[in-house]
Amino acid sequence: MKTLLSFLSILFLVSCNHDNKKDVEREMVEDVIVPTTESRPIKESVTDSTSSNVTSYLSAYKSKLEASKYKYVISNHNGLLSPPGFYDVDETYSKGIENIERALKDVGKTVVKKNSFQYKAQVKRNGDVFPQGTMIEYIFKNDSIATSSYTRLMELKSGSEAVWKDGIDWNSPALMVRKENRIYHIITGGDHMAGTENEIADLIFK
Known about the structure:
This is Lipoprotein. By secondary structure, the protein is of the alpha+beta class. 41% of the residues lie in helices and 17% in strands. The protein has helices spanning 2-31, 58-66, 98-108, 143-159, 161-167, 196-205; strands at residues 73-76, 111-120, 132-140, 174-179, 182-188.
């Protein structure tokens, strides 16, 4: 009888220990439960589509011109950098372009940075002309603003071509090109250099 009681006591203790162990294991499992996808906060990456690179590309374009067959010599044209805005209209041809000036001021408000240089060839083109001119870089906050500004400028040009050539292109063959968030204005040194603006654009942009 005494032996039977001892056996039952041991059995009871084992059973209790087993139950306690299961409770402890259950508590441990509950403590390390990983939140589900629905309950875990997700940190979304935010892309700022309102800004772009505003570093000038003129240095790279200068190198291309210097290495070309015309061996261009590049010089800074700091006079074009002030006052700020889109463009400094040539006062010699300012008559009759008030409407264009107003539109340019509107566009100018969106210009973040303006850079420029002058170029002059050391090798003649077609045997009689040393190509030369000016290149201006207008940088905008993003591609969208640059695109809408370029569209606006081309509308002004098509609506007043003669006035545009006199006042904006300095009465010389010229070309405007949009690349990313920039507009480039290539202005030649006169009518006898017609076509060199396209050669310059092909050389530096392609």
